[in-house]
Design goal:
4 helices, 28% helix, 5-stranded antiparallel β-sheet, alpha+beta, 15 strands, globular, binds magnesium ion
């Protein structure tokens, strides 16, 4: 069931979303060669708690970290560890925070120091696909319209669209209905209504769309080892458009 949020619920989601956005802003300055992903995870945990929220992903389905940190060919669900970031890496921080029972969810891929032109383009183009998907959202938009726009951008740049992982409704649970795939046909899928809150989150690969899961039972990586980027915002559907809840 896709829920329509009340004014009170939307206010709480704005607060949860702003804590997520602020956590990104706070962590960004620590993304440098030499920091471990575990250190970033601890900074995220402390910041979210200090903000009056709780980390949404800690123990979610048994996830061992506070946030998901995925490097280079890792697509999503990387587990924080003693691995150090290196110059030229790209790193995705996927952050969720829960405030008074409501969640915000946002992922962003960052450069570590100076990165290759190929990786710069991948980040720019994946971000472009997120905003292309968001641009069609308003009361009455079909979910398929979002995926259609995202994959149109991916096709333009010859990037692989990850299909096994999708965006989703957000609210009392991090993952609610509907699924929001990054591919689709216009005019198909559930119809969005004013007051719905969803996460749109393209995951685009420099190479093929194929992925697999590592033996740690969490980390998803690209099959060809080429880098992957992930940009996500939680948004509120409005009558004539959308409001980003997780902005910085
Ligand atoms: Mg996320
Ligand atoms: Mg999400």
């Amino acid at each position: 069931m896709i829920t329509i949020k009340s004014e009170r619920e939307i206010e709480l989601m704005r607060k949860a979303g702003s804590i997520v956005g602020d956590t990104h802003h706070y962590l960004e300055k620590f993304i440098k060669p030499g920091i471990t992903t575990k250190e970033l995870d601890k900074l995220a945990n402390d910041y979210i708690i200090k903000s009056g929220a709780t980390p949404s992903f800690k123990n979610l389905y048994g996830f061992p970290g506070t946030i998901c940190i995925s490097i280079n060919e890792e697509v999503v669900h990387g587990i924080p560890s003693s691995r150090k970031l290196k110059e030229g890496d790209i790193v995705t921080l996927d952050i969720g925070a829960c405030y008074k029972g409501y969640h915000g969810d946002s992922a962003w891929t960052y450069p570590v120091g100076k990165i290759s032109k190929e990786k710069q383009d991948l980040l720019k183009e994946t971000e472009e696909s997120l905003f292309a998907g968001l641009a069609v959202i308003k009361d009455g938009t079909h979910v398929g319209d979002i995926g259609y726009e995202v994959s149109k951008v991916a096709d333009k740049y010859n990037l692989g669209v990850v299909k096994e992982l999708v965006g989703h409704g957000v609210g009392n649970e991090v993952h609610e209905d509907p699924d929001v795939p990054n591919y689709g046909k216009q005019g198909t899928g559930p119809i969005l209504k004013e007051g719905m809150t969803i996460a749109v989150e393209p995951m685009l690969n420099l190479g093929t769309a194929d992925i697999y899961q590592l033996d740690d039972d969490w980390t998803i990586v690209t099959a060809d080892d080429l880098p992957s980027a992930h940009f996500e915002h939680t948004i509120l559907v409005t009558k004539n458009g959308y409001e980003i809840l997780t902005k910085r």
